[in-house]
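User: Okay, second chain of the day. Same drill as before: sequence in, structure tokens out.
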Amino acid sequence: MTGRFRRLLDCLCRRYRDRPAGQTIEELTIDERIPAGETATDIGTDILIVGAGPVGLYGAYCAGFRGLRTVLVDALPTCGGQITALYPEKQIRDIAAVPGARGRDVVDALKRQADAYDPTYLLGRQAVALAHSADRRPRVTLSDGTTVEAGAVILTAGIGAFTPRTLPAGEDFLGRGLTYFVPDPAAHADQDVIVVGGGDSAVDWALALYPIARSVTLVHRRGTFRAHAASVSEVLACGAEIVTGAQVMALHGDDRLREAHLRVDGEDEVRVLKADTCIAALGFISNLGPLAEWGVALERRAILVDTRMRTTVDGVFAAGDITAYPGKVRLMSVGFGEVATAVNNAAVAMDPGLSLFPGHSSEESA
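Assistant: Same drill. Structure tokens below.
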């Protein structure tokens, strides 16, 4: 019997032992998720992952592959993190072997991958406090009073709680033409759209909306863009109007937005643009929330980790955008590798007799 098969069998035996009265062994493969709104008082698991975004979902797969029981916690009511909340229709192109896919499709695929090992999801609840049991196992209390005791905790909470940077000149039109998110690009079809910002989100939304909107104008206060070079080249060539060295001074309209007034460097007169929608893609203000009080070492609102993705708190690891270390690159593809490192090092920390290398997934089907 291989070590991996033994661990998977042990996991199944634990689930059977802890099953509800009357549940058969065949029913153990049925979804055992705990819906948001229901309260469990005390849960034990091998791995607790805080953050059910893409990196957290892949971490659940990695843990399941090793035969580890996994619980995922997220303050949002659905999986997917920022992708689901902010840009489910946005094309994601920085995952190896995926030339381009909608955000919602990436999340769906990652969740299906994780669900192969039946993790438990505790959604719509925030991880609030960290303590340790008598035998030094991390014990996390959630916002609904649930406590989760785990062999290890892995923090994959992205940038933490996020709020958009506002467009002061247009707050009165929020919900009446001003928006900070684009969950459904089709809602802007045949409209005059202004996108404000110079980062990846601004450029990506200009590219996504240009084929369906009546017009798209990209407004940026600087002369150069922060977005990926290839995306900048694409937006410059697509035909959208680009206004640099400009700021939105005011939005005007009646019950809906009708015009945007710009102050453009070198122009004496205010430039007036027709606008049905103004998308302010000015970035987000992040906040680690209660995680910042867990005793982990921080650097600029990120959690310091070592090469094993360990934090400075025993039994707590981290991966993805929430982490900091020399040479850190904040890409989803990097986060996938980080969480695999975290899971496998956590497994060895819980049982030093295990091999750090988990084996290859292809071996299971061989």
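DSSP finds eight helices and 22 strands in the chain.

User: Thanks, on to the next one.
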